[in-house]
Amino acid sequence: MKPRALGHQLMVEFYDCDKDILDNLEAIEGAMLDAALVSGATVVEKVFHRFSPWGVSGVVVIAESHLAIHTWPEYGYAAVDLFTCGDTVDPLKGFDLLEERLGSQNMSVVEMKRGILSQANGVHKPMMETAEEIALPSCSLPNNVFSGKSIEPESMQVVA
Amino acid sequence: MKPRALGHQLMVEFYDCDKDILDNLEAIEGAMLDAALVSGATVVEKVFHRFSPWGVSGVVVIAESHLAIHTWPEYGYAAVDLFTCGDTVDPLKGFDLLEERLGSQNMSVVEMKRGILSQANGVHKPMMETAEEIALPSCSLPNNVFSGKSIEPESMQVVA
Fold first, then answer.
1. Average pLDDT over chain B, rounded to whole?
2. CA pair distance B84, B82, nearest whole angstrom
3. A91-148 confidence digits (pLDDT tens)
4. B4-117 carries CATH number 3.40.1400.10
5. Distance of CA B75 to CAs A141, A143, A156, B67, Å?
6. d(CA B25, CA B57)
7. Of B149, B160, B158, whose CA–CA distance to B3 is shortest?
8. Distance between CA atoms of B114 and B139, rounded to whole angstroms?
9. pLDDT at position A62, please?
10. With CB atoms counted within 10 Å of each terminal CB, which end of chain B scores lower, N or C?
11. Mean pLDDT in chain A?
């Protein structure tokens, strides 16, 4: 049985990016908001900040968790997290958009499932009606889904 | 030679937490801000949001990157990211504070180094005066540190 999780996180290293873009607050904010939208996420709030002498940090809180970016223009590098939950959001679409907007020529992605409720030590064994129910778009499940089968733990996977 | 990175991220799964705390916007916001402060971070901006019917999401943007939390009170579970850069911030102090405030009885932590500028495929080989210089509190290095030895890639480590 495939293990399921409450959340799903992509940790992306964007290397060899356009350094001017990485240092441009408006460009970064626009790219992150567009990444949220193209992924199918619902934007709740956002904060973006440009640092001196360079670099931009920003977070978009979405109904399905968050997207975050930190840029190091001097290295052409940006660290991006795409943390989502639910089945209605496709963070890979946001990833593709950011790759293009940042002009990244090299990248790596680590995928991590968050909130695996069944653990090897047996202390977390919430029961679920079906495994699929844990991935509702709302990211919150009614307590009455705790009635059936357990799920298995899952470790991180490198997906690209 | 120990590899060094631009950033350092702790991805924490807090299980078996106090469910009332997890659903309390003020308590979560206060805990996250205190976690930033006890870690030695400089708070830049913050956004927190309580969802219906339950759950809180929030991010504290710090000068040294960000702290993020998403709570699932119905499972007693919170996903926390502590993303920092520089040598002046100790995210483990924030971790300890959050463990206590959330009342977590079980947890796991994955540590990931972000922005390893030397990669196995050889495309990222920035040169540095010394490895230590990459971890300045400002998180930004002048370009003139690109003058010496290369650093090696590092993969993720489970630290607890």
1. 80
2. 6
3. 999 999 999 999 999 999 999 999 998 644 333 433 333 333 333 334 544 333 322 2
4. no
5. 9, 8, 21, 21
6. 9
7. B149
8. 12
9. 96
10. N
11. 80
Shortest distance, CA A12 to any CA of chain B (angstroms): 9
Hey, what amino acid is at B68?
Answer: A
Cβ-based neighbours of B60, under 8 Å, separated by 6 or more:
B32, B33, B35, B36, B41, B43, B45, B46, B66, B67, B68
pTM, full prediction: 0.78
Answer whether B77's CB lies under 8 Å from B60's CB: no
Per-residue model confidence (pLDDT) at position B117? 81
| Residue B34 tokens, joined | 């205190």
Across the interface, whether the CB atoms of B123 and A15 are under 8 A apart is answered yes
The domain ranges of chain B are 4-117, 128-160
Mean per-residue pLDDT for B7-24? 97
Contact with chain B for residue A136, Cβ under 8 A: no
> Please, where are the H alpha helices in chain B?
19-22, 25-38, 91-102
- The residue ranges of DSSP E strands in chain B, in sequence order, are 7-15, 43-50, 56-62, 65-72, 77-84, 106-114, 157-158
Q: What is the pLDDT of residues B58-105, one digit of tens each?
A: 999 999 999 999 999 999 999 999 999 988 999 999 999 999 999 999
Instruction: Give the model confidence (pLDDT) of B31-44 as tens digits.
Output: 999 999 999 999 99
In this complex, the residue of A59, A75, A126 whose CB is nearest that of residue B117 is A75
pLDDT confidence band for A4 (50 / 70 / 90): confident
- The answer for residues whose C-beta is within 8 angstroms of residue A155's C-beta and 6 or more apart is none
Nearest to B114 among A79, A116, A121 (CB): A79
Distance separating alpha carbons of residues A109 and A158, to the nearest angstrom: 7
